[in-house]
Write a structure and sequence with these properties.
heterodimer; A: Rossmann fold; 4-stranded parallel sheet; 8 strands; B: alpha/beta; 4-stranded mixed sheet; 23 helices; 13 strands; 52% helix; elongated
Chain lengths: 242, 471
């Protein structure tokens, strides 16, 4: 299969290794990988802040970039959820782009969803000896309905002990611009999430959205609690090296 | 009601600093939420129930004029006085007039969010009327002089000890803070007040259009006392609180009780088809129904927000909201708090200056939409409110500039690459141990409580292009 990567703006700028590792894993699975030029962002940050016109232009750029792709895969439940959940309303008054948006919706997947549900490869032969817990990000879970896929990937990692995260369904307080627009409320939320992570007894916190992980790890670092935070892709990448 | 004079920041700070409130809120919402999970799961097909509930509410709201007419016709036919109040002030005037016509001194109330919405107690107290809230939670916050912090559990933010302290001056001696003692105390107080009531004021959970009946659910039975003992009764309802017939009522009562408290049925479901029949041993002889609009007609005509009228006021969205969990209700500043309050308050009150913060009291995690028994897409409505606020020019100039810049750079990948390279240089003064630990606002809003990773020396798009060139 020819897979086009959606690098997502956050990982592109702050965590390029996540995108790079995603490319390596997909190649390892025997697929050809390309990264269409011109792609930047799904537009969620503007859309969720109420700046719909700005969001639409950013979304249009993304749609154009992937117009000729067969399959689009991104390392974020939230960005893919933006496309699936909101693009239809974003382009409801533009039939030509609405059609293109629907094409993109049909061919785009969050990484774990793609590997487990489409490629049917839950076992990547990875090994990683650690105690880990998993935070199910809100948009991946509630908007995309991703439940089992990331867990299946993790259950196949040899040596990895998966511990339950108390109150896992609670939002970590990131919420994109929410974290800087309502910083105190956001801090109270991430403080509770961090406590649950510590209570889980895990050495590593895993997730499938760097936004949430950046928030939780940033807080854990600030309070000097040494819980390592990794995207599932990063853990798989490390585990597949050995 | 001091909280109305505070700024949003002050209210948030106050709530976050109050560990009693936060602990009480967390404990109570956890309990309600878990009860709801059990009560909805035992039906086996909760999603079908939700879909049915949504369909019923949609039908009512789409045909509200028809059902309202039917309700009013049924009521008036039997001699009920129906009052249509366009504004909260109109509704208050109607009630004031009824009270003064009857020269009433003692008014009994059962729980009514509409009475909170129109600030009725305050107005009646100004007239020198003795208004008594007979719902335990409402009684507590009435004594405390506070608005409700939850639409179902108005005194959720109070611990038992705080309640005991509040009762002490009334009792004239210290009360132990165990639940039986406290409820027994209130019960004795209430008995006497019930017998003295001149007028009873109740809320309305549903009004059945086909029969002209008022349905009230309570767990203390106080609603029954308020609606049977006084000779005159006033029921307050929002104009959307209608159900076509008893067939739909059955479904909505299930959804309401299970979602609100996790009960299969509320302890008391009172159905009144007023006024009293000559054959009835008790019940009010004179009955007034006040139907409040307060911009609901406008919401009805607004395609984007019409679904907010589908709400059955169960409070399930409060109990799963991670923002409400941290703050409780008072930090919102509004009568209706929680996710549904953040949606309807700006629509009802139409004042962005005062209520423009509410749509941002959400991380958009979607837990509210998932919990709603009639499937209102609450977090989507919050986004739409932000859109409405932005489009009507009520967002800060700086914010608008930021998004203009965002649009410019995030539609030009190559330009963004250069900007990121510049960012990688500019971040240097703020970097400690590979992390950004400080910076100017709005960045400081992040770094005050969290570290931020560095902008990578090369963004992925550049890394990939370099790799491709090497091959």
């Amino acid at each position: 299969m020819k897979v086009s990567l959606f690098a997502t703006c956050l990982t592109n700028a702050l965590y390029p290794d996540v995108d790079l590792t995603m490319a390596k894993i997909l190649k390892h699975l025997g697929h050809s990988v390309d990264v269409p030029e011109g792609q930047v962002c799904c537009g969620q940050i503007a859309f969720n802040s109420g700046y719909v016109d700005d969001a639409r232009e950013v979304a249009r750029t993304l749609i154009d970039a992937f117009e000729r792709s067969e399959v689009v895969v991104g390392p974020s439940g939230s960005c893919i959820a933006m496309i699936h959940h909101y693009y239809p309303t974003l382009f409801e008054k533009e039939p030509s782009y609405l059609k293109k948006a629907e094409d993109l919706i049909h061919k785009s997947y969050e990484f774990t969803q793609f590997v487990v549900d489409v490629l049917k490869k839950p076992d990547l032969g990875a090994q990683y000896k650690a105690k880990a817990t998993y935070h199910p990000s809100c948009h991946a879970t509630r908007l995309l309905g991703i439940g089992e896929a990331p867990l299946k990937l993790l259950q196949h990692v040899k040596g990895l002990e998966l511990l339950p995260l108390p109150e896992a369904q609670l939002c970590c307080g990131f919420g994109g611009t929410f974290s800087v627009k309502m910083p105190k409320i956001s801090e109270a939320m991430v403080a509770e999430k961090a406590q649950h992570v510590l209570d889980s007894g895990a050495d590593i916190l895993l997730g499938l959205d760097m936004g949430c992980l950046m928030n939780i790890s940033g807080y854990l670092e600030k309070i000097n609690k040494p819980v390592k935070t990794m995207h599932i892709i990063q853990l798989l990448g490390e585990g597949m090296k050995s | 009601m001091t909280m109305y004079n505070q700024t949003t920041d002050e209210r948030v700070d106050k709530a976050l600093a109050n560990s009693f409130l936060r602990q009480a809120t967390r404990r109570a919402t956890d309990r309600l939420r878990n009860n709801k999970y059990k009560a909805s799961a035992e039906l086996g097909n909760w999603e079908e129930w939700r879909a049915a509930g949504e369909a019923i509410r949609k039908n009512v709201i789409s045909n509200l004029d028809y059902y309202l007419n039917q309700l009013i016709e049924q009521m008036e036919k039997r001699g009920v006085h129906v009052h249509l109040a366009k504004t909260p002030a109109d509704a208050v005037t109607v009630v004031r007039n009824i009270v003064s016509e009857h020269n009433a001194k003692n008014v009994l109330k059962s729980k009514s969010m509409i009475s909170e919405e129109i600030h009725l107690n305050h107005a009646l107290e100004e007239d020198g009327i003795d208004v008594v809230e007979t719902d335990l939670g409402e009684y507590i916050i009435q004594i405390a002089g506070e608005p409700p912090s939850h639409i179902i559990v108005p005194a959720m933010h109070k611990t038992r000890q705080q309640v005991a302290d509040l009762f002490e001056p009334i009792a004239g001696h210290a009360l132990s803070s165990d639940t039986p003692t406290l409820t027994r105390f209130v019960r004795t107080q209430m008995r006497e007040k019930f017998l003295r009531g001149d007028i009873g004021i109740t809320g309305c959970n549903f009004a059945v259009a086909s029969t002209g009946s008022i349905v009230m659910v309570t767990n203390e039975g106080n609603g029954r006392m308020v609606s049977t003992l006084p000779r005159v009764q006033i029921t307050l309802m929002g104009m959307e609180r209608i159900v076509p017939s008893f067939r739909e009522l059955d479904i909505l009562l299930n959804l309401l009780a299970r979602s609100a408290t996790g009960q299969r049925f509320s302890s008391y479901t009172t159905i009144l088809t007023p006024p009293k029949n000559t054959a009835d041993p008790d019940g009010p002889e004179e009955y007034h129904l006040v139907i409040l609009d307060h911009n609901r007609s406008e919401i009805l005509g607004d395609k984007l927000f019409r679904s907010s009228l589908n709400c059955i006021r169960c409070g399930a969205c409060f109990n799963v909201c991670p923002v409400y969990r941290q703050l409780g209700g008072h930090a919102y500043g509004s009568v209706y708090s929680g996710p549904i309050g953040s949606v309807i308050t700006p629509l009802l009150e139409k004042d962005w200056k005062k209520w423009g913060h509410l749509p941002y009291f959400s991380s958009l995690c979607g837990a509210c939409s998932e919990a709603c028994p009639v499937r209102i897409p609450l977090h989507d409505l919050l986004v739409k409110l932000r859109m409405r606020k932005t489009q009507s020019g009520h967002t800060p100039q700086v914010e608008r500039q930021i998004f203009k810049a965002y649009r410019y750079f995030f539609t030009r990948e190559k330009t963004l690459r250069r900007a990121l390279r510049l960012g990688a240089h500019l971040q240097r003064p703020f970097v400690r141990n590979q992390r950004i630990t400080g910076g100017p606002p709005p960045l400081s809003n992040w770094t005050n409580s969290r570290t931020l990773p560095m902008v990578a020396p090369k963004p992925f798009m550049q890394l990939w292009a370099d790799l491709k060139n090497k091959r």
